[in-house]
Amino acid sequence: MRIGELAARTGVSVRALRYYEEQDLLVAERSTSGQRHYPKSAIDQVQLIQQLYAAGLSSRTIVELMPCVIDGRATPALLKRLAAEREQADRRISDLTRTRDRLDSIITAATGSMLTGVSCRQETTA
């Protein structure tokens, strides 16, 4: 498929796909006229790249992980790196969960304040 179709099917801009190619995250075959052509598997690959970016991984880190994704090649060093990235994701999830819980308590207090007129400011004890 051509770059425009891949962009449409993944919801990623053509510019982003070109960037992925520049960063060696995505590989395209070139026609004799220079047009990019991608295999169907590029759809899943682009979606994974987007997920990994959303999880906070850098393009450099993603490049290191792609051989395992594309053709199943893994090394002990890669497995160690994958485990480390998963641990970082777990820490971010924990941090986000604590933030969400704190926001829930603020929302509850603010809702109570709106209904009762009592301040929603929580007192702290020393």
Cα distance spanning the termini:
64 Å
Q: Could you give the order of the helices and strands?
A: HHEEHHH
- Give the helix proportion (percent range): 55-70%
Given helix and strand content, the structural type is mainly alpha
Averaged pLDDT, please? 88
Task: Enumerate how many helices there are, as a single number.
Answer: 5
* Residue fraction in strands: under 5%
Blueprint (SSEs and pairs):
Blueprint (H helix, E strand, L loop, with lengths): L2 H8 L3 H9 L6 E2 L5 E2 L3 H14 L4 H13 L4 H41 L10
Antiparallel strand pairs: 1-2
Helix pairs in contact: 3-4
Task: Tell me what the structure shows.
This protein is mainly α. 67% of the residues lie in helices and 3% in strands. The chain has helices at 3-10, 14-22, 41-54, 59-71, 76-116, and strands at residues 29-30, 36-37. It has a two-stranded antiparallel ribbon with strand order 1-2. α3 (41-54) runs antiparallel to α4. The longest helix has 41 residues, at 76-116. It starts with a helix and ends in a 10-residue tail after the last helix. The mean pLDDT is 88.
